[in-house]
Amino acid sequence: MEPDVSIMTLDIIEAIRSQNYVLLNEKASNAQVELLPKGFYGDFDGFRAYNLKGEETKVPFNEVKSWSGVSKK
User: Fold this and answer.
1) Tens digits of residue pLDDT in 47-70
2) Is 72 within a domain?
3) For the whole model, what pTM was predicted?
């Protein structure tokens, strides 16, 4: 079952406000990824974020295999 885009969107907005990371698994690698969201792109096609190395990346919603939500560090 695909993750719910509306839940991901609300979590991303919360993470941006609180400067927290989100946790997800990408379809391509199935590895858990921790990202710091910065905003959305397209017509909510996905979101822009920084990885732990500080590199900017785009994450399309349809490439997310599982969603763990906001990481409370």
Assistant:
1) 999 999 999 999 999 999 999 999
2) no
3) 0.91
